[in-house]
Each structure stands twice: as structure tokens, then as C-alpha cells.
């Protein structure tokens, strides 16, 4: 059956040394679907079909159309929560255990919506969105079937709008009682 497990965002491969965990977690937020089965960071999880669903209401990408990065929110046209395709890993040393995951992405250079994001001249990428009817199929997929499922999601079923981060709140002294 399905299981919901809290996990760290940023895949930590089972073979990582404890001193490498902080560095690895910063670089493994995304896995390119095209190479996940070959890259040392992801290949064991891919070959073991350690596929997961990452539940979200939206995701955020930088839009550079104004000449500087502006955070944009991307969500489903109907406003419903959805799931991104991911890989999970289980890391254990002595008594310490860490569950972690990464999002799978695909090229979006020709996607009507997602080509608007990331720096000009950079390859455009988008997370793989799994349709609710395909959740079980994804979770039980072979690596070959998972690869075939990793496609662009239709732009006409998505919405996007600028959503700049609010300014950081200054640290205020506690109120006296």
C-alpha cells in the first residue's frame, strides 16, 4: 500500500559519507530524467524503482522576462493539489537514518508555459507531474516504464503568476508583558 513518509528534500545516496551529507543535500534537489539512471547520485534509486510522489499545491520558478529573477508560482488550472515525480533513498549509518528525495525533471524548451522560466539562454526544465489516475502506475513502474511516463504536462492545464517572496521580517525584540 501507499505510505506517507516525511523526508528530506535533496536526495542523499545510500553510499554517502556522513561528512558529505550537507553538501550533497544542496545539489540533489532535481534529477534530470534523461540521465537519472546513469548518474551515480541517482542510478541505484532509479534501477531499484524507488519512485515516489511529491504532493504539492504549486511549485515556484524564476522568471527573467524583466531582466532580473522574479519568483513565479505554477499550479494546476483547477486549483487542485497534485503530485510531482520523485526518487527516494534511505541512508543509514549506525543509529542515524535519513529518508530523502529528489524531483525528476524534463526538458521544457518548447513548453508553452515553462519555457518562460530560468535564465535566458539556459536550458528550460520542468518537474514531471503525475496525473492522479497514474499514481499507482508510477509507484509500481519499472525504470523503463517510469522513463516513458516522464513527459511534459500540458500547458493549458496549468496556471502561473508572479509571486515575489515577501520581504524578510526584521528580528524584533520580544514584547514586554
Explained architecture:
The protein is α+β, with helices and mostly antiparallel strands. Helix content is 14%, strand content 32%. It is built from 4 helices and 10 strands, in the order E-H-E-H-E-E-E-E-E-E-E-H-H-E. It has helices at residues 21-27, 43-47, 135-139, 143-149; strands at residues 8-9, 30-32, 51-56, 59-63, 70-76, 82-93, 96-107, 125-127, 129-130, 158-162. The strands form 2 sheets. Strands 1, 2, 3, 6, 7, 8 and 9 form a 7-stranded mixed beta sheet that branches. Strands 4-5-10 form a 3-stranded antiparallel beta sheet, with no helix packed on it. The model has no long low-confidence stretch (mean pLDDT 92).
Task: List the total number of helices.
Answer: 4
Shape: globular
Average pLDDT metric: 92
> What's the story with the biggest beta sheet?
7 strands, mixed
Could you tell me the number of beta strands? 10
| SSE ordering | EHEHEEEEEEEHHE
Kindly state the percentage of residues in helix. Answer: 10-25%
Q: Spans of 5+ residues with little confidence (pLDDT < 50)?
A: none
